[in-house]
Amino acid sequence: MKQDLESLSPFELNLYLEEQMQKTPNTKEFLNAGRGNPNWTAPIPREAFFLLGEFAVKETMLGENRQIAGMIKEDDSRSERFETFLDSKETQGARLLQSIWEKGNHLMGMPKEVWLKHMLDDVIGDNYPHPERILNASEEPIKQYLHHELFDSKSVPFDVFAVEGGTAGIVYTFNSLVNNALLNQGDTIALLIPTFAPYMEIPELPEYGFNVHYIRSELVTINGETSYQFPKEELDRLRDDAIKAVFVVNPSNPTANAIYGDSIDQLIDIVEKDNPDLMILSDDVYGTFLNQFTSLFTVLPYNTACIYSYSKYFGATGWRIGTIAVAKENIFDDRLAQLPEDEKAQLNHRYETLTSDPESIRFIDRMVADSRSVALNHAAGLSAPQQVMMTLFSLYALLDTEDVYKKEVIGICQERGKALYDSLGMRMPIKELNTAYYCEIDFEWWLKEKYEASFVDYIQTNWSMTDIVTKLAKEEQLMLLKSEAFGSSKWTVRVSLANLPTNTYREIGQRITNMVDRMYLSFK
Questions:
Q1: How many helices and strands (H and E) does the chain possess?
Q2: pTM here?
Q3: Rounded to whole angstroms, what are the CA distances from 143 to 232, 340, 519?
Q4: DSSP letters for 280-332
Q5: Does residue 68 surpass a pLDDT of 90?
Q6: In terms of DSSP bridges, do strands 481-482 and 492-496 run parallel, antiparallel, or are they unpaired?
Q7: 25 contact partners, CB below 8 Å, separation of at least 6
């Protein structure tokens, strides 16, 4: 049984332990700090979504009173009905829609009357998504949101593919890189670690078979404060132009720190001087948990495909909504143009059912086609209601000029992080770089700080992190997530600071201390 548990992924181990705990009585509240699902939601844009749906249903039933309604049609008097409808609703969601209607014209990308017609049709979901890559009424608000939250005023023009969350984004990107001979089996790629555990596993699947180099961060001191960053000599490994692509979660998971300025400058230098064809895949899902964030897409837009999910920030993991952003001028299209003629011919055959000029299809549109095995490209695209929700999340953030929502979300994470760190006698990382969405506890370091060396040797000789996690679950009703599979050391665990009430995080630290204190007394 011990060997079987050691072989499980951290997520599967947690599921197993949770099942076991449900079978035994306990006197403590069960605290599952292993899950990354946030325990907050954004109610105002959700309420706006359902109000928009309510109005859309009424619009399909104009002059009708039957079980079957019609579709959204052109109507010159719709704007007046929409305004009357909003005036009748005394809710925050209605006020958001009112604000969008009155102040958001510059964010819609089209006249507001046209935008409303599109949005009503999309929220009803009675048509296939078209255009397949992203809907017309959603494209500009989503681009504006990404530009505002992740990129800066210098960001270049870019295109967006609406996808089923960040996980779909990375799968689609990897698949299309391989399908289009931009990456081939046996090619060398790099992962900046630690990183989300499944991203460690994907490149090693048989269909990819990449030669993976791991670029490892470490805890460093910057101006007297700590942060997980990449040593210069580690990042310099990317100067090897045999490395064709690099994947990074920024800010990181599970260490929760963003790449700081010196390393960003070094990456720019690496691309400009030594590895100009390096393809960068950056997952920026946690970027919105910092007041100031520098995306690699901002500084290296030509080389970078940026993946983003709305799931964490808006408490929307069940919606499965995210984006892939690619600059209008990008390395992926240029690399396609440089392929040998025989490979171009094969790819032309792959995509010839889509257009008479398949060679002109851009990489981002190839991702759309590949997401439905090309043959079903006409039925590709994220569902229209999902794109409406994504649009309303975007507009909500853009019109929140005082950053009320952002400040509250960041405040929640930082407060929870401080409670946990204080209870364990640890120092919080640099606030400006720390999302505080997760905390990684290095048990080896913590034991050495708190106990004598002989006890630390005893633990490391006779126990594993799986043993510790299992013991915490059974004795303290506390679930943590092993971090080794994320590329961290074998003595680390991840604590989610997002998914439990704030007042429990000091308790988490106390339960860890209580159990290890008992182990120490037994050892003595």
A1: 22, 14
A2: 0.95
A3: 33, 34, 53
A4: EEEE-TTGGGSSS---HHHHSTTTEEEEEESTTTTT-GGG--EEEEEESS-HH
A5: no
A6: antiparallel
A7: none
Helix (H, G, I), strand (E, B), or coil: what is residue 220?
A: strand
Take residue 141 and report the two structure tokens written for it. 């608000």
Identify the three-state secondary structure at position 100: helix
Token pair of 216, please? 């490892």
| CATH number assigned to the domain covering 136-397 | 3.40.640.10
Contact predicate 89/44, CB 8 Å: no
User: Which whole-number Å values give the CA distances from 68 to 71, 121, 134, 485, in the listed order?
Assistant: 10, 16, 29, 52
Choices 3.30.420.110, 3.90.1150.10, 3.40.980.10, 1.10.10.10: CATH for 2-32+404-523 = 3.90.1150.10
Mean pLDDT of 16-27: 78
Transcribe 114-139 into DSSP letters: HHHHHHHHHHHT-S--SSSSS-HHHH
Site of tokens 């055959």:
349
What is residue 190's three-state secondary structure? strand
Q: What's the pLDDT band for 65 if we cut at 50, 70, 90?
A: low
Question: Which residues have CB under 8 Å from 447's CB, separation 6+?
Answer: 455, 456, 459, 516
Task: Give, in degrees to the nearest 5, the angle at Cα 134 between 393 and 128.
Answer: 105
Query: What is the band of 24 on the pLDDT scale with cuts at 50, 70, 90?
Result: confident
% of the chain exceeding 70 in pLDDT:
99
440 phi, psi to nearest 5 deg:
-105, 125
